[in-house]
Amino acid sequence: MNRYRTAPFSLSSHTSFPILQHFPFSFPLYFPLFFTFTFPCSLWLRRSLATSLTLAALLLFILPRPAMATPVLNTRPAVSTSYGKLPADSILTGADQTNLYLPLLKGKRVAILANPSSIIGSESLVDSLLSLGIQVVKVFGPEHGFRGNASNGAVVGNETDAKTGIPIISLYGKKKSPSQADMSDVDIFIFDIQDVGCRFYTYINVLRNVMQSCAKYHKPLLVLDRPNPNGYLIDGPILDMRLKSGIGQFPIPIAYGMTIGEFARMINGEGWLGDGLHCDLKVIKLAGYDHQMNYTLPVAPSPNLNTQQSILLYPTLCLFEGTIISQGRGTYFPFTVLGAPLLKGKYDFSFKPEGIKGMSEHPLHENKDCYGLDLRNYDTKKLETSGKLHLQWLLDLYEAYPDKARFFDRSQSAQMGNFDYLAGNYTLKKQIISHTSLKKIRASWEPGLKAFKKIRSKYLLYP
Predict the structure, then answer these.
(1) pLDDT above 80 for 105
(2) What is the greatest pairwise CA distance in the chain?
(3) Which of 38, 102, 263, 306 counts the highest number of beta carbons within 10 A?
């Protein structure tokens, strides 16, 4: 496919030579004739100048005109063509398609939920909209903050953005939702966050909270959709709502195979806002996307998902946060390695977690050599082909661990999470401890997955 496409909106195309936008396409050719007969000077001078202007006009005629839709090169690392059905340059995110939503923002007071993944091209959504004259009155930040400089689980406070002077209100900590006061000077709310398609990734919880506030205070919500890098994957146990927590709010599997825009439609349609609330929701759809595409994120969605490999392994490896096994937090390659000190002698590969500001200040097994699996070069196409979580790694490391009674014991470290909350049921941990086969474990998930897929189908925007 031709790597050039017609730009839906170009900042240069709306600012360069603005007067030319108001004349017919062939106007430059008319101008020399007009000049020849009207300019008050000698006939010879008028003819000489007219000839020069005619040549200049011809150049304007044949060169690309900024006022028109111009071919632009897609330089963003959007998708890999190694797997999937559509060409690499075929995706336009919701944010990229400014022609579809700028008219909705003109003259409005705009609030935005954003982080570093919120971009138009390679520029911040907030910075870009400000440069286009949109009145952004405040920004809300999720976990890790608006500019993305807070560690996992770190409390993020309110602040003023140093670059723009816009107030930033944190929705991670005690405050979970925009208040009535926050919304009092807002006409429309934009949600633009890159999700990774996992139940325990907290941005879908923030989405629900924002939708609730928009519904309560009668503000329209505009979701700028982004691809799900794990869009092919629908797997894992359905959340038992008795285990509802900050890392599980909805009766969905670990990996749900939906974009953030599709998920917003599900929240609305399934009544998950509660109290009979319904959000005035508009999704700016992706162009050229389907769920089987292997989408490479142009910006890391959070500090510890800093590589494409970590993003694709995350749905499986995050389960290890409820165990004594380190997932590589405290290294510069988190969620691509697994290990623990007591596995020395059983695995040759080792790594040493250390405190890293902005990523993990006090990781599990800090300053201790951990032995286990190096998955940095694991062929993730195997995951895409199977369409399943790689649960075998969890079974194998449990079998290899010498002190099995403490494999899930959270009393050993504050950095260990609750495995049942992560799994979404009370069953999986018991199945692992009782050496239940992978086949039987998967069979126990199937009824829930089948029912979920039927519900999911009602809200899909893409094949």
Answers:
(1) yes
(2) 103
(3) 263
